[in-house]
Amino acid sequence: MKTIYVAATGQHVGKTTSTLGLVSNLQKRGFNTGYCKPVGQESVTIGGMVADKDAVLFSEVIGFDIHPEWHSPVIIGRGVTKEYIEDPSRFQFESKIERAAEKLNAEFELVVYEGTGHPGVGTVCDLSNARVAKMLGSGVVMIVEGGIGRTIDKLHMSLALFREHQVPILGVIVNKVHPEKIKEIKYYLGKKFEKMGIPLLGVLPYDQRLSFPIMETIRQAVNGKIMLNGGRMNLRVEDIIAGSLVDVEEFSAFRNILLVASIKRLNEAIEKVDSIAKMKNLEKSPLSGVIVTGDGRHAKWYDEADLNNPYFKKHKIPVLTTKLDTYGSVVKISRIEVKINTQTPWKVKRAIELIRKHLDFDMLLNQLEMKTPKT
């Protein structure tokens, strides 16, 4: 029985996408591979059961019936940290993780555990990533973002906690590297990692498609209200344009565009979009959605009749309203940290493909055999 613990130097580095790629590709290579998120922070309720959202994602994408006590044994939700500090005996976190591991170890020949946040997350409840990996007898695959100096510095700091707990490091995956920098990054990080005694398992190119949000994610960012075509909120957004700036030269790629416009400019902007689309001989609308912005002051700045442009019905364009003005909306959207989920199947497919193409699985499996004990 072998286990891999996937950790990262911080949030939004690519831990979930890398874990997904690992599990899927290990299964395709013939390994009976299981998955677990031993410590979670963001939970959802499914079938009356509470589980970490990533565990739910994996159950749907990989295809297994989720059992929170096995796949998501510990959730550190709001208020738990204070309660734990006050009286740790009220919680049975360690035993829950141990029981989940015992169940999974009996069922699979290899289990991939997904960590949470940076290595120290969970320490307040005595469940840092390093401590949990030690409990599970796992070797660690560390995910870092591409770079040289800053990447090495962050990695060195992050590995210190795992070394303190004497957790073996299986290797490092460098994520989000611009394609033109891959050769350089491989050379310099490979050279430095060799001196540090750490295998470089792979360098993954930055893929902009993985950073595209969907309309539902944007709705949440601007606290928007769905006015029309709410069943199309899974459409992806690749570009944003303000209603006052719609013109031919503004569009680098005339597809999957989010139009952000005030009610005064809305119909004029739609007319321009339609005109440009006809000029380019497009068969369908280039818009993924429309946000009708407010002025940041008034609760109601539009009449619903103002939104009944026939273009929206014809092309089934989702339309949102937000109290934010146009500038405020664009700022909020630009700060979105996009996470992979079941509504973004193209991201799931791409994440699996990137790991398959750019990870040295033979090296990983060799490290796993050498550095982790048989159980």
Main traits of this protein?
375 residues, alpha/beta, 5-stranded mixed sheet, Rossmann fold, 14 helices, 2 domains
- Enter the CATH topology name of the largest domain: Rossmann fold
Give the CATH class of the largest domain.
Answer: Alpha Beta
Using only CA atoms, what is the Rg? 23 Å
Task: Specify the oligomeric state.
Answer: single chain
Numbering strands along the chain, what is their spatial order in the largest sheet?
2-7-1-8-9-10
Q: Assign a percent range to the helix content.
A: 40-55%
Number of helices: 14
CATH superfamily of the largest domain: P-loop containing nucleotide triphosphate hydrolases
Output mean pLDDT: 89
Textual characterization of the structure:
By secondary structure, this protein is an alpha/beta fold. It folds into two domains: 2-208 and 340-371, Rossmann fold; 213-334, Udp-n-acetylmuramoylalanyl-d-glutamate--2,6- Diaminopimelate Ligase, Chain: A, domain 1, CATH 3.40.1390. 41% of the residues lie in helices and 20% in strands. The chain has helices spanning 15-28, 53-63, 68-71, 80-86, 93-107, 129-136, 149-164, 182-196, 215-222, 266-279, 310-315, 326-334, 345-358, 361-371; strands at 2-8, 33-36, 39-40, 43-46, 49-52, 74-75, 110-114, 139-145, 169-177, 200-205, 225-228, 239-242, 257-262, 287-293, 319-322. A hairpin with a 2-residue loop joins strand 4 (43-46) and strand 5 (49-52). Helix 1 (15-28) packs across helix 13. The protein starts with a strand and ends with a helix. 41% of the residues are buried.
